[in-house]
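Why this split exists: single-chain examples teach little about how molecules sit against one another. For that reason, every record in the complexes split bundles all components of an assembly together and asks for one structure covering all of them. Below is a record exactly as it appears in the raw files.
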Amino acid sequence: MKVLVPKKSLADTLARVERIVPSRSSNPGLSLLRIDVTEDGMELSGSNMDVDIRARFAVDAPGRGSYAVVGHVFSQVVRALPGEDVQLDLGDDEMQISSGSYSTKLQLMSPSSAPVLNFGAQFGGSIDAAQLARALSAVKYAASVADFQAVFRGVKLELADGRMRAVATDGFRLAYYDLKESTGLLSEVIVPARSVDELLRVLSDGEVKLALEPAQLSVQHGNYSLNLKLMDGTFPDYERVIPKTFPVSITLEAGRLAEAVARVALMADKTTNNRVDLFVKGGELRITAEGSFGRSQEALPVLQEGTDPEIALAYNSKYLTDALSPADGEVRLSFSGSNSAPSVVTDLGDNSYLAMVVPLRTS
Amino acid sequence: MKVLVPKKSLADTLARVERIVPSRSSNPGLSLLRIDVTEDGMELSGSNMDVDIRARFAVDAPGRGSYAVVGHVFSQVVRALPGEDVQLDLGDDEMQISSGSYSTKLQLMSPSSAPVLNFGAQFGGSIDAAQLARALSAVKYAASVADFQAVFRGVKLELADGRMRAVATDGFRLAYYDLKESTGLLSEVIVPARSVDELLRVLSDGEVKLALEPAQLSVQHGNYSLNLKLMDGTFPDYERVIPKTFPVSITLEAGRLAEAVARVALMADKTTNNRVDLFVKGGELRITAEGSFGRSQEALPVLQEGTDPEIALAYNSKYLTDALSPADGEVRLSFSGSNSAPSVVTDLGDNSYLAMVVPLRTS
């Protein structure tokens, strides 16, 4: 069967799908990309066990058929094609890919060798893609990358009536982002942070359809369908640990604070959690660090509320800069006093976002 | 002693010097950058044993002094500085670096802990920097990166009367580039290819001064002085193996050939040296490859000279694309006939360049 496709749409789609389909796997079936040609067009699908993806696009095809091909090889070939159009000639054992003066014959596998994927969800929910992307992007840094308690490597989605929250924590810091919208679903689920990254790559503008099924969240957006496997386990009762009142808080521009923290932290030793010390007194924030190469400091004027004795707290500098990264205007950094109780970052331009950072114990 | 420097000139200079001064070394002295302040300005110098570098720039300084500091830390700090100017306050044990609201104190070491470097060469030779850069850039790919015979990891410079040649080979391919200029030096030296990379990074416009000393080539260009340690050993007698007559040659656009070879080679197995086969007959070049995932081919019209029976030769595709990379217009690819004698690439727009590639043995 001969199928004619514009090179650009095939290459762009394969680039997204290829990220998920592993190029090496102990299970060789996982490296296969399934190709289904129907009267509606062409579908490419694959999985890495945590995320299933299917991309669909219109093609001129004279019939129906199902095939499987090694995903990363197909992608590489399509990326390198010289022409603007691609002709795929799908046979029993081989697919001939022709474009301009170039042609290649790739071995085809039986479609039954590829993972069996189910994209037949009934979508009972929906949300705006840009909003969902903003919420997930704002919090995913706070999930753990280490092989720690599993739920710390996930992003929790609280789907409630009239609101939705994305929240992540690794036990030392936390971030949440609230959307004041109903998705139409009522549930709480935990999605692995790595799957959130893959979802973010396909989100653009428009609507995202959502469906909750046992053990997976199904998402449809534009030409893409994804099944995200959910994590088991109980997410910590985080609300309880977020302080509500603060003796002292400071307001300043997020970027300026983040740059100063990063700069001062250059002198911090990695062995001491990249420790930086913050001192707040009389409308001035002083940031210091020291390590085996020397010591550094920077002082910034701030708008200070509260007049406690001088605040003196130590932080992992990376946790502070991460917490500031989703904000682009002024932020308020609120201290629970000079002890190791958590500090809180709020974005004055976007009150949907809150981050909490636990100071380092210094004594 | 207080020294005032524009941040940009200090940061740019450190970026170049930092590439050479190792950030980790079993010899801790090597990670030190020496700072000399004189009435002429400031000098930063360091070494990785193969390359010594010294950068000089004008500063406002009230006296003279010599210091040493851990190079990569100094660079990191300067890169992150917030202001446009930097004040360096050089004391006995510490250097305070201040810029805008930020300041840091870095430990200083005794300048005698840093490597002893000699930049006192008498420059008896010179050449245009852009020309030297063109020659070195065009040939360095052909040097070996593997732990093979040492001279194969070097670039040979033939400094003769009225001409200069840069040449590199790894035994399977070769490239040379001729300049029709006298450097004023008469010698043949071999410079490690990695040192050539460092030299290329400092070359811009203007004159390069050259000096040959026992076991090193000294170079001065703009604000930079480099000593490049030379390699011992005998460079192969390569002229002897470059064929002079060719039964068949083809002419086509270098970029088009390189792209086609790279595209076809996607199907080649790495275990067979990325083998691509070239067939030339009747004004057509056909390139084919096959491997475990499938097979590919591309046919290009060429201007053919010579009418031998069909040329059929196999190459490591990477050697072909490397050989084509310095050319940007039409190239001639000349074949010694259908056997494993070397093929030759010449750039029709720049007859200074010649590359030789040995075909793969296929039987």
